[in-house]
Amino acid sequence: QSALTQPASVSGSPGQSITISCTGTSSDVGGYNYVSWYQQHPGKAPKLMIYEVSNRPSGVPDRFSGSKSGNTASLTISGLQAEDEADYYCSSYTSSSTLSYVFGTGTKVTVL
Amino acid sequence: QVQLQESGPGLVKPSQTLSLTCTVSGGSISSGSYYWSWIRQPAGKGLEWIGRIYTSGSTNYNPSLKSRVTISVDTSKNQFSLKLSSVTAADTAVYYCARVISAAVDYWGQGTLVTVSS
Predict the structure, then answer these.
(1) Chain A interface includes B10 (CB < 8 A)
(2) Count of A–B CB contacts within 8 Å?
(3) How many CB atoms are located within 10 Å of the residue B43 CB?
(4) A80: exposed, middle or buried (C-beta count within 10 Å: 0-12, 13-18, 19+)?
(5) Helix, strand, coil shares of chain A as percentages rounded to 5?
(6) DSSP assigned state of A3
(7) A44: which residues sit within 8 A by CB, 6+ positions away?
(8) Does the distance separating the beta carbons of B47 and A48 come in below 8 Å?
(9) Of B60, B106, B110, which has the smallest distance from its Cβ to A48's Cβ?
(10) For B78-116, how does the pLDDT look when each residue is reduced to its tens digit (9 = 90+)?
(11) If 0-12 CB within 10 Å is exposed, 13-18 middle and 19+ buried, where does residue B41 land?
(12) Contact (CB, 8 A) for B42 and B36
């Protein structure tokens, strides 16, 4: 099972909006509404930011939103803030693996 | 508030077996429709699913690691464990235990670094 494809890096200025893509196939992202997104600061464990494509856990700012179109899921951060600088990973349910889960390759978000 | 904590040796010799335990507090490992998982991350690299176990004891493993991985659960101790055999330097990573619901990890352990070296 290959990892989902994410851009290596995305950057933006404070206050701007950025979007991170996560591309898979019809066996994972495109076939199920089980895409999640994680934020990871250096030396820390990842934190769940979005689950089931577009749902935010309690406590996650509404600046973070998720969506999906075809085989590509997206995470949008609106009103970018300095503390949003981190690595972001998507994950999806997959029917192509007996384990049923696959991560994306990860995206480094830089706040300019 | 559910908390997960990994424990185990931080240094393992090549060809030996890596063993880690995850202790769950703040809730019973037997309650709810959760999968309990292990995930690892080599330094400077991305996340990799290792495997998962349901409270019934049923398991699923990453096909690339399946021949070397065993995940088990001890409900009496509210713990689940990872064993990875025949380790090499490529298995050096931070290992996380995690709770999974609806294919999303809602709780993570803090992670533990395991180095494979003689």
Answers:
(1) no
(2) 69
(3) 9
(4) buried
(5) 5, 45, 50
(6) P
(7) none
(8) no
(9) B106
(10) 999 999 999 999 999 999 999 999 999 999 999 999 999
(11) buried
(12) no
Find, in chain B, the residue whose alpha carbon is nearest to that of A5.
Answer: B46
Tokens read off for B109: 């352990």
Q: Output the six-digit token pair for A93.
A: 């349910």
Structure tokens at A111: 């706040």
Q: Contact A52/B104, CB-based, under 8 Å? A: yes
Which DSSP string do the residues of A39-70 spell out, in sequence order? EE-TTS--EEEEBTTTBPPTTS-TTEEEEEET
Interface residue B112 vs chain A (CB under 8 A): no
Nearest CB among A36, A101, A106 relative to B49 is that of: A101
d(CA B112, CA A11): 30
pLDDT tens digits, residue range B9-48? Answer: 999 999 999 999 999 999 999 988 899 999 999 999 999 9
- For residues B42 and B44, what is the distance between their CA atoms, to the nearest angstrom? 6
Neighbouring-strand partners of residue B81: B21, B72
In chain A, residues with a C-beta closer than 8 Å to the C-beta of B100 are 101
pLDDT band for position A99 (cuts 50, 70, 90): confident
Which of B104, B89, B96, B80 shows the shortest CA–CA distance to B25?
B80
- Per the CB < 8 Å rule, is A46 touching B106? no
User: Smallest Cβ distance to A103: which of B49, B51, B102?
Assistant: B49
